[in-house]
Amino acid sequence: MPKPLIALDWGTTRARAFLIGEDGRVMDRRIADQGIQSVPAGGFPAAFEAIAGDFLRRRPDAAIVLAGMVGSRNGWVEAPYVACPASIEALADAGIAVTLEDGTRATVLPGLSWDDGAFDVMRGEETLIVGLGLNEGIACLPGTHSKWVEVRAGRITRFASFMTGEIYGLLRQHSILARLAEEPSGDDASTGAARGFAAAARPAGLLNAAFAARTEVLAGRMGGGAVGPYLSALLVGQEIAGVQALFGRPATVHLVADGALAASYGAAFETAGLPFQITTPEDAFVAGVKRLAARLVA
Amino acid sequence: MPKPLIALDWGTTRARAFLIGEDGRVMDRRIADQGIQSVPAGGFPAAFEAIAGDFLRRRPDAAIVLAGMVGSRNGWVEAPYVACPASIEALADAGIAVTLEDGTRATVLPGLSWDDGAFDVMRGEETLIVGLGLNEGIACLPGTHSKWVEVRAGRITRFASFMTGEIYGLLRQHSILARLAEEPSGDDASTGAARGFAAAARPAGLLNAAFAARTEVLAGRMGGGAVGPYLSALLVGQEIAGVQALFGRPATVHLVADGALAASYGAAFETAGLPFQITTPEDAFVAGVKRLAARLVA
Question: Which of A167, A259, B216, B223 is the most buried (most CB within 10 A)?
């Protein structure tokens, strides 16, 4: 890499900032609360200064790349979605230049869209996918709105979003099941997960299998502590089934996750007999932004 | 019918009370707020008096039948679930006698359970099913937790619950989609319903198709007013697909509903090419309780 790099994964509620040296190593990192929803109109140069101004003073020669919702309609500047199939070059070339307070230029990366009759979009995840360096494969980025992404011949060909994390939270916290659910103890986690995965394969579907969490507890077959693990396994199982209906069965799932999500998706893939490899979101982002920056400054 | 009948559909939050004459006609009806959750321990005789004591004074010779959550663990007395397949006689015979303030006896009807690996239960809906007078058929009772019920040779053989109404409410009111959703106007209802039904058949499943409500609006293909109709049609479509996977395709759906639910499920059945007949919940309940009472007093 010819130059150092300041890279922000700038989302709705938070920004993650990295200072990356010429050798490609992360020299400094920071998580800031200045998500784009907290930035007033015209306030992005000042917000950048607050988040990462000191990085720039340390390395005034750095390239600056901004990924995520900062490129949305409500962000610094709208960087229109690049339609799939999309190459790394196409992503980099669709970056939009903005100017910092001191006149330095930065690049706002675009998101991706895919349209197969239903329209789907992502912003920020495309950079993590680039960071995986896949030539062929299927990647999974679990979360509030999980993304599954297909890469062929080095291009991002298709992807799909799943409301898994959000619907889990709604059911666990706000549905009739919330009244039955307790903190897991003993073998609640394994019992709930096993029953939830089994329920994901039942013919009547999610709306029926979710209700069964209640009746299994009322029937004394499952403790209240198993309700959360049951719902998690049911929803992840449905997500995996949906992905396979869409993309076929992956040879390996490239899972971009850490912590509890890596554990729960890893367990789901083991149960489903799907080989998988884990990359942390930070590693994927840093690798992705370096690859995109190399194209930008080339 | 040899005697008049006082019948209560006594649920968690409400009680519906009917006074039915010897000729089988409803002479009086009332909806009361004394659902079982508002009745203190030992307070059921007094609650009955408040809800329907005047019915009994008008017709002191009436048989008294109580259906619904009043027969649950938190009700007046627990009338254990009757396991499917269940005949009308088995339901009536499992009624439990209770005593009113003046010593008059009343019968608390049981609910139904079905166990095919997952456990499912109902309380109250069984009385409406009996009221349909089916010998063979599939009935649909839509709502917060929709019930689909199979009747063969006059017995209730199987049933399944779907969290359709509750998950609709969670998505419409509390999810990220709530921020986009507006009151339907113009052709929002028809556009949303058409897209939602189509989405229900997409291979990636509910978690993916629900998210598409957001992206379809962001892409300008659907107005915010279409979000609610989209979600409703998507969820009802998924429910219908689940039922067909479970019970096969019904020749006719016996739909027990009125108002908006009758309209939205009726529209869904038309789109799916499923013939259907509508019975109102009141008509089904009154007919069912009369049939069960005839067995009780026989």
Answer: A167
Q: Is B206–A208 a contact, with Cβ atoms under 8 angstroms apart?
A: no
The topology (CATH level 3) of B5-123 is Nucleotidyltransferase; domain 5 (3.30.420)
Tell me which of B2 and B230 has the higher pLDDT.
B230
Domain spans in chain A, listed from the N-terminal domain onward: 5-123, 164-279
pLDDT in tens, A177-230: 999 999 999 999 999 999 999 999 999 999 999 999 999 998 899 999 999 999
- The per-residue pLDDT for A116 is 87
Is there a contact between A211 and B238 if contact means CB atoms under 8 Å apart?
Answer: no
Q: What is the pLDDT of residues A229-253, one digit of tens each?
A: 999 999 999 999 999 999 999 999 9
Of the candidates B207, B211, B239, which has its C-beta nearest A235's C-beta?
A: B207
CATH of B164-279, one of 3.30.420.310, 3.40.720.10, 1.25.40.390, 3.60.40.10: 3.30.420.310
Q: Which residues of chain A have a CB within 8 Å of the CB of B235?
A: 207
Predicted TM-score (pTM) of the model is 0.93
Band the pLDDT of B296: cuts 50, 70, 90.
confident
Q: How many CB pairs under 8 A join A and B?
A: 142
Whether B207 and A174 lie within 8 Å, measured CB to CB: no
